[in-house]
Amino acid sequence: MRLSFAGSANSNASFGRVSQVISAVPYRGRRVALRALARVPRPSAGSAGLWLRIDAKGQAVFNDNMLDRPVASVEWKPYEIEAEVPVDADQIVVGLLLQGAGDVFADAYELRDLGASGVGAEAARTLSKQETINLAAFGRAYGYARYFQPTAAGADWDSLALAGVLAVQDARSVGQLAAAIQKVLRPFAPEVKVWPASTRAPSQELAPGERVRFRHRGLGPQTSAARKTVYETHTEVVSKAEMFATDLPGGLRLSMPLGNVPPSAIGPVRLEKPDGFRPTGDDRITRIADVIIAWNVPQHFYPYFEQVDTDWLEQLERSLREASEARDAEAFTQVLNRTRRRSQRWPWLCRRAAASIGIRSRMVRLDRGSAGCQHNASRGGPQAAAM
Fold this sequence. Notes:
By secondary structure, the chain is α+β, with helices and mostly antiparallel strands. The protein is 27% helix and 27% strand. α1 (129-148) packs across α4 (284-301) and α4 packs parallel to α7. The model is unreliable at 347-380 and 383-387 (pLDDT under 50).
């Protein structure tokens, strides 16, 4: 199938699409995946993507057109959109969309039933004080590692957030917490060290030679297929790495070089979840991981911390508790909106997250594309890696 669009002078009709409407009844209460092979004949100004929309009671409850991660390769590649189908869904719209002038080819379209929704999902519950501290400590360490430790290409940081939540939440002592965080981060950032602040810092001898560090101007696109922005994230080679150290919640310390030798390869992240598990906003672990992922973007890249009076760490802990207690994805959306209103430091948090707000939620996508300015040194973060 080929979709070609010449563009339009009407800004309200600046895209072309081809679609098919099917009944949602056979898929109610199921998780589905829209899959296809796609390519573009040449790089162009247009953005193309698969399109999946789910309607219930006359309203769209899920809508993903991939325009934030468009088809950009001239070679045939597989693409996929996953979604939960609500039990009251009426219809499913599948198709192909092209925004702006250009062409896109697609083949082998299929809507696959992935099984019952909610496999392995944890029910909402209240976090204890210790669990909240554990998760806040991991959340802080996760952000430092992700945005200031270059690692192997294709590293699945989203799954690592899930694995980290599962690993640290039940730690019963500061020693157990430090060991759990260290173990989770080691494959991705082996030179990040975490230890109890009451003990001696571990020895850390860095291998000599050239190292790689991030240079951020805001948080730039993480892939070449991402839409163009004024923000940039790239790596550079340095001959010597400065050391950074900071406190973490729960009586921990963290240190790391601002420049490292990235691992050559990283295996898939293993989750202690049953086969068939998919991260969605109906899962308590996913909601907590989503908060950690999103919170770290303004934590390291928001330009106006000095303009508002908010305890940003307290907002993390409060959002973690509320995410754990949210009954489902819709309730989690309200948690995110309350966080935005309370903190005044999450201004680009989307007004409404996707109906299936999992690790790849629109919230996180928008944050990555919109966060701007260099890291603020007054926040006590690793400025040298962000300048």
